[in-house]
Amino acid sequence: MHDIATSFINLDAITILYLFGVGFVGGLVSGFIGSGGAFVLTPGMMSLGVPGLMAVASNMCHKFPKALVGAMKRFKYGQVDVKLGIVLGVSAEAGVLYGAGIQEKIKAAFGDAGSNLYVSVAFVVILATVGGFVLLDAWKTYKSGNANTEEKAGKLARWIQSVNIPGTMVYFKSINARVSVLFTIPLGFATGMMAATIAVGGFVGVPAMIYVLGAPSLMASATELVIAFVMGLGGSLKYAMHGMVDIRLAMIILAGSLFGIQLGAIGTTYVKPFMIKVVMGVIMVIVLFSRGLMVPVYLAQLGLIDKLGDGTVGLLKTSSFAIMIFALLLGAFIVLRAMWQGRKAERLQHAAGALEHGEV
Amino acid sequence: MAANSTKKRPVGKMLVMGLISLALYALLLARQDEVNSMFGKGGWYAFLPIITAFVFSFVHGSFTGDFWTVLGVEAARKKKEVK
Question: What is the pLDDT of residue B1?
């Protein structure tokens, strides 16, 4: 920590514009699905020469104020369950600490390559199972023609809502039922652990709220912003105590992301709920390929497979980063397109209504 | 409908918050060396970046919210109240 002052990078206009732009796109996706952006921002900052831990810390320090603004905006639309967000957020904080501890142990035992391999494998396994499930569910909803009907809790969620453990039951308005905190605590913990491992806790938190607790997609993605705020605030404070936050980077990213998060939040009022699942599922599945490409690089570094040539490593790294940026941009495109179509439909509806009432 | 289209847009508030936000960013970048050395000290100084983040989010968040409103990008009129 002593040489931290020498770790601050020089900022030029291009770097500022780059951070602002990535912040905007990340914010747009976060405002819509409750999380996202971190998986591009952290490696993006590292590519500018920011040390890994400082990139994680600075990303976190932009995340909590961004999540706060997004949560407040979506609260106005009646989409946030504050109680559920705080209950999950506090247990997620514990998960973050535990996850960070595991990371440190793996790093001490197997070095950087071991730690990176663990992160990549966690990414691939979680994104393949959860992302695949979310995308399949969204596809089924689309094909069934029930996209406009209110979402119903699945079998697992209905069972969890039916379990009564005296002394642990709490009513949550998003679920419109009483659920035992003995279920919510492990979910929050897993969300935090994922946030500490793959930087995007929402990829676990949002699907968990939808499929395990039975919350509607819009409320789950909005409530995730409360969890991100609680987790981000605690995490930022922890890193800031070691002087790891580069406030300039955090605030420049925040400048872009606050434009984006407002727009993403507005977008949720125009789309059908299953679009949340579409955007989340698409991003998760594409990011999965991005991380998957890096697995051979780390395996080679650990000596588990034959050494790869420098050209191959460079190609895999560049492709991996490009795919991540593509995932984020595609997510942002789907959000903007869905919003555009929703606004167009609303304008047509109003015009038709005005004609009917002879206002024109 | 008529009431909606003539609704006053918060241009004045947006400009004020925009200017304050711009001033905050100019100050942060103009004094970046001092800021870095002070915020990088850790310990109790950890509250400085946290307070900064809250202040920026309040000012810039208010500005960006009004920015989209002034441009006419607002939430759907029929609120989606989801239970």
Answer: 40
